[in-house]
Specification:
- One of its GO terms (biological process) is nuclear-transcribed mRNA catabolic process, 3'-5' exonucleolytic nonsense-mediated decay.
- One of its GO terms (molecular function) is hydrolase activity.
- This is Helicase SKI2W.
- InterPro entries: DEAD/DEAH_box_helicase_dom, Helicase_ATP-bd, Helicase_C-like, P-loop_NTPase, RNA-DNA_Helicase, SKI2-like, Ski2/MTR4_C, Ski2_N.
- The chain contains 40 helices and 28 strands.
- With 1235 residues, it is of the alpha/beta class.
- Strands 5-13-6-12-11-7-10-8-9 form a nine-stranded mixed sheet.
- Strand 8 and strand 9 form a beta hairpin.
- Helix 25 packs antiparallel against helix 30, helix 33 crosses helix 34 and helix 35 packs antiparallel against helix 37.
- The longest helix has 25 residues.
Length: 1235
């Protein structure tokens, strides 16, 4: 049968091809050869495959512009078939249209999409919201109801109900009055109810008005008693549905975080009991309240943020989201921060759901499965490349979402959350963080949906924290409880721990003759004693297995080697371990089975000891993990990465130290890091408490403050690590419908401004309305229509003068002549915010653009803080209009006044006078002024010396005139050339203002005060509007400068043209996902074309190497490695020079170029065994494997770039490189995907 169908299809194709050829060659009007794609038209007609390709081009899959739709009558029978036109989106290409209804992309890379595709439109962007805000019309009747109601199913499906509801007979007909849909006022309606309405979840219900109009609607039914009986059922059912939905909404978590709703998890959730019989997945155990809350939220179709301690059971939430997808026949994606965790979750979910796939950089297993496991970077690539899987996606689960705090990769989580389409629902799983509501609110705002926050601080297994000071047989049991399971710090126990160390130190000093060597870090001999005695103590207390966290790969290996003398397994366990170990490494080839690391770990595991860090071969790490899960490994030495998502709890957790080196400095662990690792202690259902031990290997116990800070300190908030990357820029610039500013505005770093944006927009609109409503008074003197200068023009000129004068004083401050004038006792004119007019003051001192002055004031002086910026600005304008630009208010001094001192900026200076008070003690005057600043001294009389000074000051002030003022450029010289032009402009403006003042009649208007108030109010509104517009402008974004710098770099290199369009070079860079600039330049400069496959592998390994040798790498001149070094180094330096010229940071965090493994990779690509290449370096095995595995991903990217360039030779070469490196132990299949 299959052969007949195949023969029939081949015959049909042959007939069509022959018909096309006959038409094109016989009838010129049907010759379409020159209208098809260039690549095909360039083939000559005699070519055998020309007509086949033309056939494929003409008959390629493309939806018809119309479709047939049956029309049903009231009884459900088909009356006729009508032809309907498809919408434009359904006919659009995936390379231009972002709609979910566009034509499916049928390329060869449908899983990850294609760089020629544009992404699907992200949820929450303005274009999507613009459709929502169109509902501001007066009534819903003006909106096309067919968008929201399915009239064909209206007989048995009530809008807002989750399941079909059949009421009476389907064939019944009747006429009933239906209330007109209520009006929607967007000022008062809940935005989430509105979103629910648009999404078809439920109608919006508002209180009925007094006058309700009704319209008659014909509904197919029969007037029977059964219909009357069901009317009450409809009302009661509707009422119950509304009550349930009202209880779902609940109170908001905070007035500030409107998009986050905190769910109470202190007790069981009542709603859970109702949905329990119909759950998508049943569990053999009772769910905790926080799990119940998450399940209820997901059943309602709401996104959730779950924050709970390690091993609390967050995976249950992920499993339920996947179960919902299985029930709904949709897809789920589970993302993890690391590849190892993806492999583990693949195995775990495969046992539960069977139909599970895994997508990583180098493998794709079961990509057609409904549940896909991948890293977050893979999902980001799928979103940018418009993968077809996104259409079918219902839930995305982000595990370990607190990884967003990672400086190197945290930005990826933000990009993915922003780019997810609106139909995708989100589950975020995180450790306990203080700002869970704030983060959920940010996600809710960018996706325009409410996020349920499920937070629990309760541990399923409480922890007890101990200090261990034992070092020998006598002190073996020196374990001191410092924090109990209630979280209370035990100071008495801490004191005993200190005493135990002091006692031992005293004994050692006596043996050494009383010398105190002070603090000494542990050495190998000391560490061996500590660990041997610790392990014996834990075994005697039945507190094994234990995970020992050590913050160094080398020290992990060293500490494990110290326990080679220990034996923690029985004979039967040893037999099982050897059998399992041999079975796992059986897949390795040749000498790989005899590698030193393999033999070392086999011996360790046989004794019940394991090692787990990035330097261990991946397959050996998985062996250790599986043995640990089975209980054969009793003591596991691991680095921090073991605590990242791996669900492998232990009875105890041991900290080798509470300090670690983070690449920059040696520092204490943060509380969050400590909790993440300590949370591995305690196995649910097995242990009553988890045991956490902190080793004290030195001669002193850690300080109380440090221990308290680490164990009981506040955990770090989720913080944005968003940054503008070249990959993000290129992927967004090629999409016409998206703007880079939209992405930046929705980043978490802008969450604060995002929350206040709506309020700012409302304020801006209000201020604009107020400005438009302001009309000038009917005064031809102050507000002339044409000709003469009015009050508004005069004030504008005055403001310009004030601004120029303020900047001028900052310039003049650098002049020596001005510094000589600013001496104690100098009389200066200043304008202070708390005074309406400028006043004379006595200068006491000057320093760093700040002046300290004193002046007499009334004892009922208003507080400076009560004078806001607007009032101070108005005061200064009024005083200049009243007293002139050089005038000030004369002060009548009497002995009942007091003096006050003020620190003012240099730009508050109005003028410097020629007058000084010579006989004056500045320090005494200042002390008395400071004394009057305290209210209890305000009634004291002035001292005799101060009275004399103020009397002199009053006389000078009375006689001050314009002739006493010192003008720059006239009364003192300007020595700096750069200041001459500024002073000249100011003097010119001053003359112009004096002339305008003399001929401006507006300042003599009898209503000048009220008119001036109008002008100032209008100026304030204009300034306020300008400030609000600046805050809402794209340039105000925190990352705006970084964005423009990176864009400038891309333009300089030719990746983007002057119109911000991605060039051909940029299209090539879109295919590269790591070191995109350097790799693209190497490809387009021809650095790879003349190289052999092994040389290409060595050259590209410089972008993936994460190992830094302790010795400087030097290559023999003119050797192959020296040539490769020069190729990479010269290209890198050229890019760096361009970045340096433009003052741009070039490479991302962690993207350093390293040449340390170039020779190793070269030998591996030439076919050498792994044992051979290990002799060429001191790098650990796991680091080498990671370098080569990442190299495989780069090779794939370069191969895709070669396809874009149209270089088949390079494409074939990269295939050869991939084949050369993808072999043996480096690319051994994961045990989780095969066991």
């Amino acid at each position: 049968m299959a052969e007949e169908e195949s023969l029939e299809q081949l015959s049909e194709r042959t007939f069509r091809t022959s018909a096309i050829q006959l038409l094109c060659e016989s009838l010129p009007e049907y010759n379409v050869r020159h209208t098809i794609k260039k690549g095909i038209s360039e083939l000559s007609p005699p070519a055998e495959n020309f007509w086949d390709k033309l056939h494929d081009e003409l008959f390629s899959l493309c939806p018809a512009t119309t479709f047939l739709k049956p029309v049903l009558n009231s009884s459900g029978k088909v009356e006729e078939i009508v032809e309907c036109r498809r919408c434009g989106d359904e006919l659009a290409s995936s390379s231009t249209n972002m709609s979910l209804q566009r034509i499916p992309f049928l390329g060869s890379t449908t899983i990850k999409g294609s760089s020629s595709n544009v992404p699907f439109f992200p949820g929450g962007f303005d274009e999507e919201l613009s459709r929502l805000w169109t509902l501001t019309a007066t009534t819903l009747s003006s909106v096309d109801e067919e968008q929201y109601l399915n009239f064909e199913n209206l007989l048995h499906h009530v809008p807002g109900f989750e399941h079909d509801t059949y009421l009476g007979s389907k064939t019944e007909t009747t006429e009933t009055n239906v209330k007109k849909p209520p009006e929607i006022n967007l000022e008062s309606v809940d935005i989430f109810d509105l979103l629910d309405y648009v999404g078809g979840a439920a109608p919006i219900f508002t209180p009925p008005s007094k006058e309700e109009t009704t319209v008659a609607v014909k509904v197919p039914t029969q007037t029977t008693d059964a219909t009357q009986e069901t009317s009450e059922d409809i009302d009661s059912l509707l009422e119950n549905q509304l009550k349930e939905r009202q209880t779902i909404v609940g109170p908001k978590d905070s007035k500030e975080f409107h998009y986050a709703r905190r769910i109470d998890t202190s007790a069981d959730i009542p709603e859970y009991k109702e949905i329990f019989p119909h759950m998508a997945k049943q569990y053999p155990f009772a769910l905790d309240p926080f799990q119940q809350a998450a399940v209820c939220s997901m059943e309602r179709g709401e996104s959730v943020f779950v924050a709970a301690h390690t091993s609390a059971g967050k995976t249950v939430v992920a499993e339920y989201a996947i179960s919902l997808c299985k029930l709904h026949k949709t897809r789920a994606i589970y993302t993890s921060p690391i590849k190892a965790l993806s492999n583990q979750k693949f195995r775990d979910f495969k046992l539960i759901f069977e139909e599970v796939g895994l997508i990583t950089g180098d493998i794709q297993l079961f990509p057609e499965a409904f549940c896909l496991i991948m890293t977050t970077e893979i999902l980001r690539s799928m979103l940018y490349n418009g993968s077809e899987i996104i259409r079918e996606l219902e839930w995305v689960i982000f595990d370990e979402v607190h990884y967003i705090n990672d400086a190197e990769r945290g930005h990826v989580w933000e990009e993915v959350l922003i780019m997810l389409p609106a139909h995708v629902k989100i589950v975020m799983l995180s450790a306990t963080v203080p700002n869970a509501a704030e983060f959920a609110d940010w996600v809710g705002r960018i996706k325009n949906r409410r996020i349920d926050v499920v937070y629990t601080a309760k541990r399923p297994v409480p922890l007890e924290h101990h200090l261990y000071t034992g070092q020998d047989g006598k002190t073996r049991h020196n374990m001191f409880l410092v924090v109990d399971k209630e979280g209370q710090f035990q100071k008495g126990s801490y004191a005993k721990a200190r005493e135990s160390k002091e006692f031992k130190k005293t004994g050692q000093n006596a043996a050494r003759g009383g010398k105190n060597p002070g603090f000494q870090p542990g050495n190998n001999r000391n560490d061996q004693n500590v660990y041997i005695n610790l392990v014996e103590h834990l075994r005697s207390k039945d507190q094994l297995p234990a995970v020992c966290f050590v913050f160094s790969r080398r020290r992990c290996d060293d500490n494990a080697q110290l326990l080679l003398s220990a034996d923690l397994t029985t004979a039967l366990e040893k037999n099982h371990i050897k059998h399992f170990f041999s079975q796992c490494i059986q897949r390795l080839k040749g000498t790989d089975k005899e590698l030193p690391q393999v033999m070392f770990l086999k011996e360790l595991c046989t004794r019940g000891v394991g090692v787990h860090h990035s330097g261990i071969l991946p397959i050996l790490k998985e062996v250790v993990e599986l043995l640990f899960q089975k209980g054969y490994v009793k003591v596991l030495f691991a680095t921090e990465t073991f605590a990242m998502g791996v669900n492998m709890p232990a009875r105890s957790v041991v900290f080798d130290s509470l300090q670690k080196h983070d690449g920059t400095e040696l520092r204490l662990l943060t509380a969050g890091e400590y909790v993440q690792m300590a949370g591995r202690a305690g196995r649910r259902g097995l242990d009553a408490t988890g045991n956490v031990v902190v080793l004290q290997k030195g001669q002193c116990v850690m300080d109380f403050e440090d221990i308290h800070k680490v164990i009981l300190g506040k955990q770090a908030n989720l913080e944005s690590k968003f940054r503008v990357t070249y990959t993000m820029l290129l992927n967004l610039l090629r999409v016409e419908q998206l703007k880079i500013e939209d992405m930046l505005q929705r980043s978490y770093v802008e969450s604060g401004s995002l929350r206040g944006a709506l309020k700012l927009k409302q304020t801006l609109e209000l201020q604009r309305q107020l400005l438009e409503a302001m009309h000038p008074p009917t005064c031809t003197v102050c507000f002339p229509e044409l000709g003469d200068m009015g009050l508004q023009s005069y004030i504008d000129l005055l403001i310009t003068y004030i601004e120029r004068q303020n900047s001028l004083w900052n310039v003049l401050y650098t002049e020596d002549a001005v510094n000589k004038l600013l001496i104690p006792g100098r009389i200066v004119i200043v304008h202070l915010p708390c005074f309406a007019e400028p006043r004379a003051a006595i200068l006491l001192s000057e320093k760093a653009n700040m002046l300290k002055v004193v002046l007499p004031v009334a004892k009922n002086l208003p507080d400076d803080a009560k004078c806001d910026q607007q009032q101070a600005f108005g005061n200064r304008i009024r005083s200049f209009v009243t007293h002139g630009i050089d005038g000030h208010l004369k002060w009548n001094f009497d002995a009942s006044q007091m003096i006050m001192s003020y620190n003012i900026a240099i730009d508050s200076l109005v003028a410097i006078t020629r007058q000084t008070i010579k006989k004056m003690n500045a320090a005494d005057l200042l002390n008395e002024a400071l004394r009057y600043a305290q209210p209890r001294f305000r009634n004291n009389k002035l001292s005799e010396d101060t009275e004399k000074v103020l009397t002199t000051f009053a006389k000078i002030d009375e006689t001050l005139s314009n002739e006493d003022l010192l003008l720059a450029g006239k009364d003192f010289k300007i020595t700096r050339l750069e200041n001459h032009e500024e002073v000249s402009r100011w003097l010119s403006l001053r003359e112009h203002l004096l002339e305008a003042t003399s001929r401006n009649s507006a300042i003599h208007c009898v209503h000048i005060e009220s008119h001036l108030g109008f002008v100032l109010e209008r100026l304030y509104l204009v300034a306020l509007i300008r400030d609000l517009e600046a805050k809402l402008a794209p340039d105000s974004l925190a990352l705006s400068k970084e964005y423009h710098d990176r864009l400038k770099m891309l333009k300089t290199l030719g990746y983007v043209d002057e119109h911000d369009l991605v060039t051909f070079k940029g299209r090539v860079a879109c295919e590269i996902h790591h070191q995109e600039l350097l790799v693209t330049e190497l490809v387009l400069d021809g650095k790879l074309h003349k190289r052999k496959p092994a040389e290409v592998a060595a050259l590209l390994s410089t972008t993936t190497c994460q190992f830094k040798s302790q010795e400087e790498i030097r290559f023999t001149p003119n050797s192959i490695f020296d040539q490769l070094y020069q190729d990479v180094f010269s290209t890198e330096q050229r890019i760096k020079n361009i970045a340096r010229e433009n003052k741009i940071q070039l490479f991302e965090i962690g993207d350093e170029i390293r040449f340390d493994l170039m020779e190793v990779v070269y030998l591996w690509a030439q076919g050498e065994s792994f044992s051979t290449i290990m002799q060429k370096t001191d790098c650990q095995e796991g680091i080498i494997v990671r370098c080569i595995q990442r190299l495989g991903e780069v090779c794939k990217d370069v191969r895709n770039a070669a396809r874009i360039v149209g270089d088949p030779a390079l494409f074939e070469k990269m295939e050869q490189v991939s084949s050369a490196i993808k072999r043996d132990i480096v690319f051994a299949a994961s045990l989780y995907t095969s066991v």
